[in-house]
């Protein structure tokens, strides 16, 4: 019954991501799908609606800089210890992208609503912040159950595509996320899931009592591609550290559009991983 | 010599969290992380520290959402929160400077702050830069409110304290104003007034913020330094320079 998945090259993995797709990605410390992001830039996809689950950094920054993005929905978008994301900052100042500002638990709740197939989810807190004033997909109601009082509802977030990088996948398309269970929620909520991974697991992950609890089953997975160091220049769990020199250079060079164009030319459009 | 200012700030923040059990520190916050680990070292039997972005200090196994669900149940005692702008009513802006949505200077975003503000029992604001640019009369966007609106469900009442590189202020919830509690060594009341963009209450003089006690210093340069090195190696190298030889 276990059908084998072809191991695609990275540009083939993203072939069916259409213009205007809603694409969800995990935080940069969880398995940032950088190889996939570079392939999306090479494909020249446009008008993406990016969702950070619940926040992200470099993947969104690169796609914004490359002109692939129309809307960003996230609790945060920064480069961590390397500072603000310069292409995001300029795109907002110039009104080039629409930002749906969120807060972490509201994004989690929206994805969980989609996972459950319900239209919305109530979330504590947040009322009193300016965030709900700018979200027409959120609503404050008087809670009809429990202790009553005002409570915020957030609409389900139903992405077209989830993309993530994980440690292992097997030939049958099962993907091991381990502790990074936000990737499970993303995949459950999304119509399609594209996975890159470090190492091919020999055998079937679902048949291992140790690996199965951390495994995203293949029926959620659309396609897989093996990409060693698929998060580079970001780090990946215990597998490798962030390329500090590269990130420092990026933060500097991407301050201008010209500098960013040079970066794309050098590290994205002509990357070694390109087909 | 170790960086005395960082040790003092960590000791002060740790004392503010003394009565807590579970403290959570946001990503890229080395001084609050140092403070949380110090509080833990002072009371190891009852203290638990979570550091976002760290694998070792992350006791959750259901992904990012579990931490927020845990807070929503009232299980979390304290949260250290920074801010691009902080105003005199203790509102915090992490979204951007200038008129929203096309902020002149777009900052990363609110992260968990809008939720944590009233779901955690104690919120301690920390921002090293003390300037009129950061401490403003009114924030351009409220990521985390300083006081809860009437009638909403809360687990805590929002920020209790503000610690900067220059002073410690306490938030008076009745008056909705900050009150100066102490000034760090090397700074003066006139300087604090000149560098603060909002009005706050103060006496004619203010006590000096005490440095770490001998016990705190011993813990900071011993177990805390060792624990923090796995999370913030560059910060540890800078803050604890040359204490290894001692």
Describe what you observe in this structure.
The complex is a heterodimer of chains A (275) and B (246). Chain A is an alpha/beta fold and 275 residues long. Chain A has one domain (10-125, 136-269): 3-Layer(aba) Sandwich (Glutaconate Coenzyme A-transferase), CATH 3.40.1080.10. Chain A is 28% helix and 22% strand. Chain A is built from nine helices and twelve strands. Chain A has helices at residues 10-13, 28-31, 34-43, 58-65, 86-93, 104-116, 182-189, 244-253, 257-269, and strands spanning 22-25, 48-52, 69-74, 98-101, 120-123, 138-142, 150-155, 161-169, 175-176, 192-200, 215-216, 223-226. In chain A, strands 1, 2, 3, 4, 8, 9, 10, 11 and 12 form a nine-stranded mixed beta sheet that branches. A three-stranded antiparallel beta sheet of chain A has the order 5-7-6, with helices on one face. In chain A, α6 packs across α7. In chain A, 52% of the residues are buried. The model of chain A has no long low-confidence stretch (mean pLDDT 96). In chain B, the strands form three sheets. Chain B has a seven-stranded mixed beta sheet with strand order 2-1-3-8-10-11-12, sandwiched between helices. The radius of gyration of chain B is 18 Å and the shape is globular. Chain B has a single domain (4-234), classed as Glutaconate Coenzyme A-transferase. With 246 residues, chain B is of the alpha/beta class. Chain B has helices at residues 4-16, 30-42, 64-72, 113-119, 189-195, 214-229, 233-239, and strands at 22-25, 48-51, 78-81, 85-87, 92-93, 96-97, 105-106, 122-127, 135-136, 159-164, 167-172, 177-183. In chain B, α1 packs across α2 (30-42) and α2 packs across α6 (214-229). The mean pLDDT of chain B is 93. Chains A and B meet through α5, β4, α6 and α7 of A and α3, β7 and α4 of B.
